[in-house]
């Protein structure tokens, strides 16, 4: 791997982003979102449902274009990095998926592939992929049927959804929920599955969705299993 390539540091980019976010939203609004994240951190300390050494559940999900992608076909090509995210409306998801996009060449250099999974509908997934020009598949996991096997599912607070609505973001537009009583989204997490279908890396910071797995952590894990 070329030493000249600068690996993005999510925590640094997050700090810069949050400074700008307060200027855009105002302190009062930002405090509401920050309190939500802080409470989730206290409530959910270990969201992972599967750990290193476990066999990963095989699954099939549609990508942004409606093509069915199977885990079995992916691991036949090499290790797979799987990241679960909340949705287009979450600024931290946008920030981290963009950071992961910038390490796709390094991920591929290890013979691995990256996929991102959310409960959003394919239209929203396509928008996410196009917005960031993502060079990896964004899969739609309706009802969190796959996510719940890997990470904790939470019921989004109505107050947060209403606050987002004030900002012109309709939470429900991104999902194919049958009714507005359903507000389930996954706690963000990253897993790496090797060619044998075994989990070799599993990490989530906690319920605080502002915190995410660093790109360097992913690359270090891939380096360890590849012997580089």
Automatic annotation (TrEMBL):
Source species: Flavobacterium paronense
Domain of life: Bacteria
Domain Thioredoxin: 50-227
Pfam families associated with the record: AhpC-TSA (PF00578)
Keyword tRNA processing part of the UniProt annotation: no
The keyword Disulfide bond is assigned to this record: yes
InterPro entries: AhpC/TSA, Peroxiredoxin_BCP/PrxQ, Thioredoxin-like_sf, Thioredoxin_domain
Reaction(s) this enzyme catalyzes, per UniProt: a hydroperoxide + [thioredoxin]-dithiol = an alcohol + [thioredoxin]-disulfide + H2O
Protein family: Belongs to the peroxiredoxin family. BCP/PrxQ subfamily.
Protein name per Swiss-Prot or TrEMBL: thioredoxin-dependent peroxiredoxin
Record-listed E.C. numbers: 1.11.1.24
Alphabetical keyword list: Antioxidant, Disulfide bond, Oxidoreductase, Peroxidase, Redox-active center
């Amino acid at each position: 791997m070329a030493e000249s390539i600068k690996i993005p540091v999510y925590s640094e980019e997050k700090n810069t982003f949050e400074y700008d976010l307060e200027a855009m939203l105002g302190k009062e609004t930002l405090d509401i979102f920050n309190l939500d994240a802080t409470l989730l951190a206290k409530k959910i300390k270990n969201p992972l449902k599967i750990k290193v050494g476990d066999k990963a559940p095989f699954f099939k999900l549609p990508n942004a274009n409606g093509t069915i992608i199977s885990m079995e076909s992916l691991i036949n090509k090499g290790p797979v990095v799987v990241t679960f995210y909340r949705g287009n409306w979450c600024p931290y998801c946008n920030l981290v998926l963009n950071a992961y996009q910038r390490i796709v060449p390094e991920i591929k250099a290890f013979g691995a592939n990256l996929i991102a999974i959310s409960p959003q509908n394919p239209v929203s997934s396509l928008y996410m992929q196009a917005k960031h020009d993502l060079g990896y598949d964004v899969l739609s996991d309706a009802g969190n049927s796959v996510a719940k096997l890997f990470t904790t599912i939470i019921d989004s607070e109505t107050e947060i959804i209403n606050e987002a609505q004030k900002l012109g973001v309709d939470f429900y537009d991104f999902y194919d929920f049958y009714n507005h009583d359903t507000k389930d989204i996954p706690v963000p997490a990253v897993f790496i599955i090797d060619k044998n279908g075994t989990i070799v890396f599993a990490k989530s910071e906690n319920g605080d969705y502002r915190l995410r797995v660093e790109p360097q952590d992913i690359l270090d894990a891939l380096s360890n299993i590849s012997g580089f």
